Every structure is written in structure tokens, then in C-alpha cells.
Amino acid sequence: LVSCEHATNHVPAAYRPLFRGAGAVLASHRGYDHGAATLAKHMARALHAELLMGRATRLLADLNRHAHALAALSEFSKQLTADEQRRMLARWHTPYRAHAAAWVTRALADGARVVHVSCHSFTPRLDGEIRHADVGLLYDPQRPLEVALVRAWRAAIADRCPELRLRRNYPYRGVADGLTQYLRKHAPAGGYAGIEIEINQRITRGPRSRWQQMRAMLCETAAIAIGGMGGTF
Q: DSSP letter at 64?
């Protein structure tokens, strides 16, 4: 399973009045994860995986946050009444996470094990702090399959591109509120490995040729890491 929760900065027509004059915010890292959708599409093709992508800006409803988390709604969607918020979440948030959970549940019921790669990107500077990484791999250190997969993927990336700054559980913790953490509650540690990959937007917004090479390398190394684990999955 490959997913991209912050794939787009699209605002559904019914909610455009809320975002009047917010073009700059929508185009920023707050509106969507630049480059993440492209990576997710390439990753899904390379891994022959199911692809799940968000269809509205995270500023309407953040698919990588629990519906009741404060961060699920932005200053724009908080303008809606409580009833309007519930209807919006029922249309744009709940089905996405329910689809992911149902897909994982079906795969496990069929006797499969699931590798889930959630594709994200991050702004190089946040609140005045420079993020010192090119690629982050987020996971739960208490789940052995995730530890093994991250170790193998990190080694494959380092072998191909030793100059890259790779960090684990950076710029966020792998067990923070997110889709992978949500799905861990639906799947045993021996059946589901959820990894978030975070790419520095300095790369996704940089020279096109470098970003293309990076995407190809990440897809290739993901396949190597999963395949190299033999019968684990």
C-alpha cells in the first residue's frame, strides 16, 4: 500500500469561500506536501502497490491526523459550524482512513503481510529552525518488521547516494498521530509495517533532473529493501 495524505492543495467548490485570499497559504507547505504525490505515483508503480491519495488540501481536513485532533482542522475549516465540520469530515476525512483500514484488514485476512509506504515532504525551515536532513524514515521502534525494513531501506539508499543526509524518525516521530499509527491499531506487529518517508522540499522544489533521479532511486531502493527481506513479507 502506498499512500499520500497531503497530495494536493485543491479546495472543493463548496468550501472555496472559506479560502478566499488564501492562495499563498495553499501554495505553501501548509497547503500540501510538494512532490509527495509524484513520488507516491512512481512508488506505487514500482512496487505494484495499491495507491491511495488525498483529494483535498490538508487545510480543509488533515488526513494524517485523527478526526478529533486539534490539528485535523485549520483556521479555515474551523470557521465551519460544528454540524458543518461533521459533514465535511464525513465526506473528506473518514472515508479515506476507513478505506486504508479496510484494505489492510482484507490483505491480512487473505494471509498476506502489508508494507505501507506513506509519502510526505517537509519544508526546509519551520519556525525559524533549519531541518538538517534530506530524507527521513519514520517508523515505530517497537515493531520489529518496521525496524528491519527501515534498516534495509536506509542501507540501500546510503549505498546508492552516500552524500544524502538520512535520518530516522525525523523531522517527526514515527509514533506520532498519523495514518500509519492509526493503522497499527488495526494490524498486529507481525502483519503490518507502516513507514512514512519524508523528503526535504529543498529537493522536490530544486532542479527537476535531480528530483527525478531521487524519485527513481527511492523507488528502486524500496523494492530492494522489501525484496531483500525474503520471506518476511
A: T
Q: What is the pLDDT of residues 139-189, one digit of tens each?
A: 999 999 999 999 999 999 999 999 999 999 999 999 999 999 999 998 999
Degrees, nearest 5: CA angle 32-141-117: 35
DSSP codes of every residue in 31-94: T--TTHHHHHHHHHHHHT--EEE--S-TTT--TTS-TTSGGGS-TTGGGS-HHHHHHHHHHHTH
Pairing status of strand 114-122 against strand 125-126:
unpaired
Give the integer Cα–Cα distance in Å for 227 and 10.
36
Distance in angstroms (rounded) separating the CA atoms of residues 226 and 232? 9
Beta-carbon contacts of residue 163 (< 8 Å; ≥ 6 apart): none
- DSSP-derived secondary structure letter, 40: H
> Other CB atoms closer than 10 Å to residue 83's CB: what's the count?
8
Phi-psi region of 152 (alpha: psi -120 to 50; beta: other; left: phi over 0): alpha
212 with 133: CB under 8 angstroms?
A: no
Residues ≥6 apart with Cβ < 8 Å to 128: none
